[in-house]
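lol so apparently i was supposed to do this last week
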Amino acid sequence: MNKTYLVTAGPTHEKIDPVRYIGNYSSGKMGFAIAERLAFLGAKVILIAGPVSLHCQNPTIQRIDVVSASEMYEACLLHFPVCDGAVMVAAVGDFAPMVVDNQKIKRTSENLFLELRPNPDIAATLGGIKRKDQILVGFALETDSDEEKAMLKLHKKNLDLIVLNSLNDKGSGFQHDTNQIKIFDKSGLIFTSGLKQKLEIAVDIVNKMSETEDFLSGRR
Ligand code: C5P
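anyway here it is w/ cytidine-5'-monophosphate bound
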């Protein structure tokens, strides 16, 4: 496969002070599995990884470690133009503290208020600048009205495909080694998987990506 793909994976950490941050439970397993699958097929992979304790198996994967959503945003904007597509698997923090304290915030008996500002939406930004020859895949992790919300996100962020995993499905989503997904394109539902290992789910996602790429380039 003579192609280059950007993959984002893992959580982001938004610093509060030198010892604290706002994060989430993403393990990075799904994103790393997709990066490995694409690399196995011979693609060049640029993996933008948030703070995770995972290692890449395939030595050809170019891994760029970032911590915050802003760092992930900068790295994605830098590398996306040379890519044939991007798979946005990272659970990017939606908000970051307005002010980062230089000193550890002292514990007092008073309530503490943190003012948060919204982080940039990386997938939506890439959706706004993507060329016709680039495929953009996003993820949706929902707890209610799943399918409707996934379709809305696909259109709002100008994605070609969206992968839905529902927190209502047992064994799906954060931390698990398994996942269960539905894939939608602009016309609606195109694929439903069973509960499988994330490595097998990655195979399904990459297969659907290549079918979509063939469709987008008029080969189908
Ligand atoms: O809007 P929501 O966070 O549910 O969208 C999820 C999708 O958007 C995922 O593909 C995620 O990687 C991406 N995303 C992003 N930047 C953000 C928030 C989400 O790239 N700030």
